[in-house]
Amino acid sequence: MRIRILGLFLLLATVIPSRYDSFAQTPVVVTNTVTYSLHGRFLLVNNNNFTVRDYVYVPLPQNSSFQKSFVNYMEPNPLRYLRDEDGNFYAIVVVEVEPKSNVWINVSYTVKVSAYRLGDAGALWPSLEIVRKYTSSSGYWNIYNSTLIDLSYRTALADTPLETARKLAEWVVARVGYRIELSRLGSDHALVARRFDYVIVGDCVEVADVYVTMARILGLPARTAYGLLLSGLKGRMWLNLTTLHEEGLQLLEHWGGHMWPQVYFTEVGWVDVDMLDGLKPNVGVYNENHILFGVEETKYYGSALSSACIPSYLTLQYVEYTYEGERT
Known about the structure:
Layout: H1 2-12, H2 16-20, E1 28-45, E2 52-59, E3 67-75, E4 80-83, E5 89-97, E6 102-118, H3 128-134, H4 146-155, H5 161-173, E7 176-178, H6 187-190, E8 191-193, E9 198-202, H7 204-217, E10 222-229, E11 234-240, H8 244-247, E12 257-265, E13 269-272, E14 285-286, E15 290-296, E16 315-327
Parallel strand pairs: 7-9
Antiparallel strand pairs: 1-6, 1-16, 2-5, 3-6, 4-5, 6-14, 8-9, 10-12, 10-15, 11-16, 12-13
Helix pairs in contact: 4-7, 5-7
């Protein structure tokens, strides 16, 4: 059965990259490549007084121009694989849990990640079709907010998409007021006025939402990417969802769930903008410590805390990833 599952994902790996191809003409320099063995464990609890048969969605590391991913095994065996509206692939696992009992889901991946640096690109504005698709408003990205409209045009409007993206990243990264948020605020509530300036209050999700909203206001196609930000070549990260409210910033000592923006350039494709990686603008500067699990274009998953494993009726109580990488 495991051989059949791996064979299916080898087949999928030839299909998924076309959906996530970040670099249409690859005007980039690959600076480093690491192959990771990544292992995940998810504890699901049945708090009910009756047996629950549940369909659990397990996000998979995606395939793109900078990442190649394979599933080595998953226990229990997946029922099937699913692709959502934004092209993200998931495994669907069926579990049956007795009252007041629990079950573990275990999964192992091989993920090859390439760091890159963007060269000369981003000179042409995208077509009207692309702009219409990737600059619309949402509950988290309100492009009709008058304050954000004013700030966007005053601080980041430029002649080229690349210059616009960089000016906007410089403005955003200088106003990060980092704090852990257990729910998603959206750009309307994340941007807070202070006496002399504005501050973006929240974690990586709020920073990404503000950037995406302001980019979309300026006609620059933007979306969010989510996954893991690793702390090195080898490590363990974990998340106990029953103690989140007590931990605050201590959560960062053992958890690396992450979200960051991407912008679209005509000559390139989707380019990463991870401003919280070293608190720098980082437009098209991407390191090998990222594991991409998916993107948000039209479908939204809330906090980055909730993207590891998604049960329908059971309660996700604990998440753990261990990883070890080798430079190739």
